[in-house]
Design a protein that fits this description.
Elements lengths: L4 H15 L3 E2 L3 E2 L4 E10 L2 E10 L6 E5 L11 H6 L6 E7 L5 E7 L11 E7 L6 E7 L3 E5 L3 E3 L4 E3 L21 H4 L5 H12 L4 H10 L3 E4 L2 E3 L9 E3 L4 H5 L3 H40 L2 H11 L10 E4 L2 E4 L6 H45 L2 H14 L24 E4 L4 E4 L3 H11 L5 E5 L7 E5 L4 H14 L5 E7 L3 E3 L7 E3 L3 E5 L4 H12 L1
Antiparallel strand pairs: 1-3, 2-3, 3-4, 4-5, 6-7, 7-8, 8-9, 9-10, 11-12, 13-14, 13-15, 16-17, 18-19, 19-21, 20-21, 20-22, 22-25, 23-24
Length: 535
């Protein structure tokens, strides 16, 4: 969706009414391309709070405001930090350039802030599809102090960077009532808006009447993912205001913000997992080569057996269908001993490589579990997971400053999650520390341990209701759900048959178990689990 000038004009008018005399608060990022400027308006004895939101998504740049609450994401970029200069400033006005998708927010600086040296700022939003941009202009100097992306093209005379003056795009013509046909309107409307307008006229609406309705409209309409300044007679159209735009276009900002926060950790797990899998492939190749070295024992034995037939200076021995290279400078005994030593090295290498391969397989299993835990964890789960990864060496402490992540301790009790139902209680862990606490501290020996067979996932324990078929099924479905599976084979074991793996946090050995196969997770169960995770 790309906003056309008519829709943007309506949005700016509504924004101007909402922001009149508003005081801006500290900004915060909503995503990698969406930013929020909280504001408070004082009208009489009543205060009104809201948030100006601008999106720099190349496919869908827009500006709006909202009264809803949103989650923050992490952003330490110079551009975002520069937006903090607007904190405490008073909004003087908001304007749109005629015929162009450029919006300017005029802000008077907070004069009570003794660190503030500028009298005011212009926040200029260029909401151009494919290359949106934002500039912060400081006064009285009238220079760019910050911008989202630099634009430098000396051949075209474009120099938009820090400390350079900002030049607005040339004034463009706008759609007027002088238009006489659809082709006259096409240059002034977005592609989607023009197609809707064209179909409106084609369905029998006189062109002059349709044009008058379009130009005189002061309302916004949501059609699919497009915002239009007219309903165009389309069924199912929804009228919205500038206050509702963000909620209409972004369905679950809090979930998107949560995923944005864990993206760096997820990428770290992906990188570590890729490295571990490559390491495993190299070790398996080395083991295969080492196993080939076991033939050297037979070579040495054959040389000893036929040493009487080997003249001095012989370069090879051909016996029993084998051709054995020899060093002509050595006698038979020394040639045989040379092969026995190579066999001894190969045999030792097989033992060492076998142990390394098993450790690497455990590491891969561990990392696959961590990758799932990153996606599903609550903020508390993620912080504990970071502590675990710090202790395991996957996250490094920053040099010269104290880490905000405490190191994990296996002696500490990490509280798992509980699903309390009328028929019983199911508990589950969302990271290795919670898994160990649940399985070896919370659960009793007669409780039932549930886990997806041969697949990474959370520990699920039936603490109460193990004789209830519904509780058993829910526990199995939960294990599949937390492993991001919709079907599969699930292990059930008495807790006494589950032993801790000393190599990795949260990994276990299940000595004795039975299995159940599930072809699906019931929709009602899925809704229950999603609700439990959100809580």
């Amino acid at each position: 969706m790309a906003l056309d000038n008519l829709s943007l004009s309506i949005i700016v008018r509504q924004l101007g009414e909402a922001l009149k005399g508003a005081i801006l608060s500290k900004p915060f990022p909503l995503s990698a391309v969406d930013y929020a400027l909280p504001f408070t308006t004082f009208r009489g004895e009543e205060n009104s709070k809201g948030t100006v939101i601008f999106s720099l998504n190349p496919a869908n740049p827009f500006v709006c405001y909202s009264k809803d609450r949103y989650a923050k994401v992490d952003d330490n970029s110079p551009f975002f930090n520069s937006l903090k200069k607007l904190t405490g400033g008073r909004v003087l006005s908001i304007e749109k350039e005629e015929g162009e998708r450029v919006v300017t927010l005029h802000v008077k600086a907070d004069v009570q802030d003794i660190t503030e040296t500028n009298t005011g700022y212009d926040l200029i939003l260029e909401l151009f599809p494919n290359h949106p941009n934002v500039y912060l202009i400081a006064y009285p100097y009238g220079r760019i102090v910050s911008l989202y992306r630099e634009r430098v093209n000396l051949e075209k005379g474009i120099l938009l960077t820090r400390n350079a003056p900002y030049s607005y795009p040339p004034v463009r013509k706008t759609l007027t009532r002088e238009a006489r046909c659809l082709e006259d309107c096409k240059p002034f409307l977005s592609n989607a808006c023009y197609r809707a307008f064209e179909e409106y006229v084609s369905n029998g609406k006189p062109f002059d009447d349709a044009l008058e309705e379009l130009l005189s409209s002061e309302r916004l309409f949501l059609i699919g993912k497009n915002i239009f300044p007219h309903h165009f007679g389309i069924e199912g159209v929804k009228e919205i205001s500038a206050q509702e735009i963000y909620a209409s276009l972004v369905q679950d900002q809090k979930e998107a913000a949560r995923l944005s926060k864990v993206k760096e950790l997820y990428v770290l797990m992906e990188k570590a997992l890729k490295s571990a899998k490559k390491k495993l492939a190299n070790l398996q190749e080395d083991l295969e080569n080492a196993r080939k070295g076991t033939r050297y024992l037979e070579y040495g034995q054959l040389i000893y057996l036929y040493q009487a037939d080997l003249p001095k200076g012989c370069k090879c021995l051909e016996r029993d269908g084998k051709t054995i290279p020899l060093d002509p400078l050595l006698d038979a005994a020394h040639n045989a001993n040379r092969y026995f030593k190579r066999y001894t090295k190969s045999k030792a290498a097989c033992t060492i490589l076998g142990e390394l391969i098993e450790k690497t397989k455990l590491e891969i299993e561990y990392l696959e579990k961590k990758r799932l835990e990153v996606l599903d964890g609550t903020p508390r789960d993620i912080m504990e997971l970071k502590s675990e990864l710090l202790s395991e060496g996957y996250i490094k402490e920053r040099q010269g400053r104290k880490s905000a992540i405490p190191k994990a301790s296996r002696k500490r009790r990490y509280e798992p999650h509980y699903l309390r139902l009328e028929q019983g209680t199911i508990a589950f862990g969302m990271n290795g520390l919670q898994n160990e606490t649940l399985t070896f501290d919370v659960a009793k020996k007669e409780d039932v341990f549930v886990h997806v067979k041969d697949y990474p996932g959370s520990h699920v324990l039936i603490l109460q209701g193990k004789d209830c078929p519904e509780i058993v099924r829910l526990a199995c479905e939960l294990a599949l759900f937390l492993s991001h599976l919709s079907a599969g084979e699930v292990m059930l074991a008495d807790r006494r048959n589950v032993k801790k793996n000393p190599e990795r946090v949260g990994l276990v050995h299940v000595l004795k178990y039975e299995t159940l196969n599930f072809k699906e997770i019931r929709p009602s169960s899925r809704r229950l689990f999603e609700k439990a995770l959100k809580m």
